[in-house]
């Protein structure tokens, strides 16, 4: 508790310095007590986790609708009302990729449902006319899942078990329709029932070595070889001729790996974009940190726009079966957001660097061209890294 003298002056409880505001100018301690109700503790915890608070409501509207406003406010020293640039960019980056991951899952699940996840091709027990044909198709699918299981980490094994159980249920349903006895459990399930362990994770001791760099240590060559084998296995299973269950599982694993790498890849692009701004505006004599603030706010806007696009897409997917006209509305809104993105960046560049329109447009195109190829390279590397997840 803070001390109150006889004259009515409030003193800091930590160092005894007279207080003139909410914080001690000597040691920085807050005048407010740490003994708070539980709901205040929860608010503080969310603030520490998300690094945002009520300032987000002062930050997002101008970030979306006023190009360059937040950056100019930051340069002018009016920063207290707004979320810090890096925190803003980081939170929006995570939210945007999380929303896109959900959107991709929604689209994939919808396509699987429309095509009948196991309703056609090699996985269609309904077309089987005899019990022997059902057993043959089930054995083939179980063999493919068993081959997939050997190359999967432990955390993915429950998904394979679920796919195998679903196949067996479908086969038993068809056998029941044919008046035959249900199918027996697979050899893998029998081994599990007997208590035998499955392989924990993929090792680098494959049939053949793909990667070998002479000047690298042996353990690094083994690690690279393991990674390449995982990548090739994921790609083969995701786009190969395996049964739909294993192919769907491989594609989900591939997408999850890519989205896990994308935020780090975009964080790498921000200082590169700031360096491009520094090179193209070298005669403006601005510090690199100023260009970095511009890059952070630019990317924060892009992530916010992508977040809106993902949310609108998911809303359209959910509402279109009930009201077809909502698909057109959300489609136009998504198109408007996409058009606003390059327009916003051009206006932001013009307002911050204060050059004529001709020079601004020329530099805008050159910076955009360089950034496009750099971004393509980084995203391509992210996809490669994610494929080996």
From TrEMBL:
Pfam families: DUF3667 (PF12412). Keywords: Membrane, Transmembrane, Transmembrane helix. The chain crosses the membrane at residues 88-108, 254-280, 292-319, 325-347, 368-388. Signal peptide: none annotated. It comes from the Bacteria. InterPro entries: DUF3667. The keyword Ribosomal protein does not apply. This is DUF3667 domain-containing protein. It comes from Frateuria terrea.
């Amino acid at each position: 508790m803070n001390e109150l003298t006889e004259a009515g002056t409030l003193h800091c409880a930590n160092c005894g310095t007279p207080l003139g505001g909410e914080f001690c100018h000597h040691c920085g301690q807050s005048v407010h007590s740490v003994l708070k109700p539980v709901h205040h503790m929860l608010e503080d915890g969310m603030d520490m986790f998300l690094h945002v608070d009520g300032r987000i409501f002062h930050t997002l509207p101008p970030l979306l609708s006023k190009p360059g406003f937040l950056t100019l406010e930051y340069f002018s020293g009016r920063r207290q009302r707004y979320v810090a640039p890096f925190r803003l960019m980081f939170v929006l980056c995570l939210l945007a990729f999380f929303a896109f991951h959900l959107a991709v899952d929604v689209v994939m699940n919808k396509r699987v449902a429309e095509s009948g996840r196991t309703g056609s091709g090699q996985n269609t027990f309904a077309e089987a006319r005899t019990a022997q044909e059902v057993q043959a198709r089930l054995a083939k699918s179980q063999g493919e899942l068993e081959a997939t299981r050997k190359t999967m980490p432990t955390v993915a094994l429950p998904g394979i078990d679920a796919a195998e159980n679903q196949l067996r249920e479908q086969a038993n349903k068809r056998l029941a329709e044919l008046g035959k006895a249900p199918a027996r459990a697979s050899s893998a399930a029998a081994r599990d029932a007997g208590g035998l362990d499955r392989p924990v994770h993929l090792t680098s001791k494959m049939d053949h070595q793909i990667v070998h760099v002479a000047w690298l240590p042996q353990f690094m060559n083994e690690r690279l070889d393991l990674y390449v084998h995982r990548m090739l296995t994921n790609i083969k299973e995701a786009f190969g001729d395996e049964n739909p269950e294993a192919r769907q599982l491989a594609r989900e694993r591939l997408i999850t790996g890519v989205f896990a790498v994308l935020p780090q890849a975009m964080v790498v692009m921000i200082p590169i974009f700031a360096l491009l701004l520094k090179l193209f505006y070298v005669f403006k004599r601005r510090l690199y940190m100023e260009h970095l603030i511009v890059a952070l706010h630019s990317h924060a806007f892009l992530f916010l726009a992508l977040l809106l696009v993902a949310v609108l897409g998911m809303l359209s997917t959910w509402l279109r079966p009930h009201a077809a006209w909502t698909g057109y509305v959300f489609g136009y809104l998504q198109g408007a957001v996409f058009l606003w993105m390059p327009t916003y960046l051009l206006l932001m560049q013009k307002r911050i660097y204060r050059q004529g329109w001709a020079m601004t447009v020329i530099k805008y195109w050159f910076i955009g061209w360089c950034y496009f190829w750099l971004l393509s390279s980084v995203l391509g590397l992210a996809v490669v890294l994610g494929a080996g997840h």
